[in-house]
Structures are given as C-alpha cells and as structure tokens.
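Deliverable D2.4 — example input (structure tokens):
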C-alpha cells in the first residue's frame, strides 16, 4: 500500500506576489501552512518576527515569507525536528555572514606547528 503525502512540495507552492506586507492568512496560503502553525513557529524561530499592528494583527514581509517556506521545507520535506531546523537556520545565517568561511582547525593547527618549529630554531 502506498502512503499519500499531504504536504505540498515547495516547488508547487504559488509564487509570492510583489507587495510589501502579507497577512497571516495570505502567508498561510502562499506557504501551505495553517495560521496556528505560523504563530507557533514565531515562538520557536527567533528570526521570524512579523510586524504587529492594530489589534495585534501580523504583517509579514517578503523575506519572512521566504523564511517560512525555508522552515516548512526543513521540517516537512527534509525531516528536521524543530531544534534541528533552528540549528540549520543558524548555520545558514552564519555562512551568509561569513562566519562559516575561513581556515579549518586542521589548517590552523598546521600553521601554528610550523610557527612553533620556526621559533624553536
């Protein structure tokens, strides 16, 4: 018996319209995630901070819609746990900030050993 996946693949989600703000209902439709899940994710992922206006209504910006899609992909398609997805997002952010680049520990160790050998001579 085949299992039926109820998760819409990210590639099949509708395109994101060119507008500045999106309501929680719009983000829900654009990302294939229920509004209560989006509110829960706000608590779990510190990067997700929609603007709150009158009556505590949430308004998401374009980059946050993309972030929701990324979180959705990590959890529903790639099988990460909430904690794993949180870690994955921080690794991606660190790489984008340049923190993940540079010499490895092994390379640094070899340089330091060479420097120590030179100092001993």
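Example output (designed residues):
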């Amino acid at each position: 018996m085949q299992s039926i996946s109820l998760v819409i693949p990210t590639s099949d989600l509708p395109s994101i319209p060119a507008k500045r703000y999106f309501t929680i209902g719009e983000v829900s439709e654009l990302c294939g995630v229920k509004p209560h899940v989006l509110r829960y994710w706000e608590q779990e992922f510190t990067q997700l901070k929609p603007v709150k206006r009158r009556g505590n209504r949430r308004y998401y910006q374009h980059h946050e819609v993309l972030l929701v899609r990324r979180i959705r992909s990590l959890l529903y398609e790639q099988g990460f746990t909430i904690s794993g997805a949180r870690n994955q997002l921080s690794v991606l952010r660190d790489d984008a900030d340049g923190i993940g680049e540079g010499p490895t520990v092994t390379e640094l160790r070899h340089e330091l050993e060479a420097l120590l050998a030179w100092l001993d001579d």
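The chain has a mean pLDDT of 84.
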